[in-house]
Amino acid sequence: RLVHEQKEFLIGKYDEYHNRYVEPLATHAWVENRQVFLQLADERIFAFPASRFRRLKDAPDDLLAKVEVQVNGYALRWEELDEDITVAGVVAGHFELPPQSDSPADSMAH
Fold first, then answer.
1. Mean pLDDT to the nearest integer, 85-103
2. Per residue in 98-110, pLDDT tens?
3. How many CA atoms lie within 13 A of 37 on its CB side?
4. Confidence of residue 9 (pLDDT cuts 50, 70, 90)
């Protein structure tokens, strides 16, 4: 049970009043140095390397920077790259590609 509670805290929130799990929602997204940053509704900042998704990995910087928060904060959209990613998925660590050994964020995790 403790592991489950810790995972909920990291990924989303449990709303005791309504007795339900609340998925993380993004209020803002931006890109810096090929890292995609999300500000979540609970004010946490989350980031992931663009290299973890096929369509983002080799995208030109100008197109990568055109990330939009959509679906009331549940999704990220890159219109010109035809890419949609769920906020809950990336916060939970669901990526298409494995970490690259030369990524700064990946090297900090080791």
1. 90
2. 998 765 554 444 3
3. 9
4. very low
Do 78 and 60 meet the contact criterion of CB atoms below 8 Å apart? Answer: no
Residue 49 to residues 3, 21, 34, 99, Cα–Cα distance (Å): 26, 27, 6, 8
- Write the CB contacts of 64 (distance below 8 Å, at least 6 apart in sequence): 31, 34, 36, 50, 56, 78, 81
Compute the distance between CA of residue 38 and CA of residue 40 in angstroms, rounded to an integer.
Answer: 6
**C-alpha span between 14 and 106 (Å, rounded):** 29
9-to-50, 54, 75, 77, 87 alpha-carbon distances in Å: 24, 28, 20, 25, 15
Q: Confirm if 37 and 30 have CB atoms less than 8 A apart.
A: yes
Amino acid at 108: M
Which tokens in the block code for residue 35? 């890292």
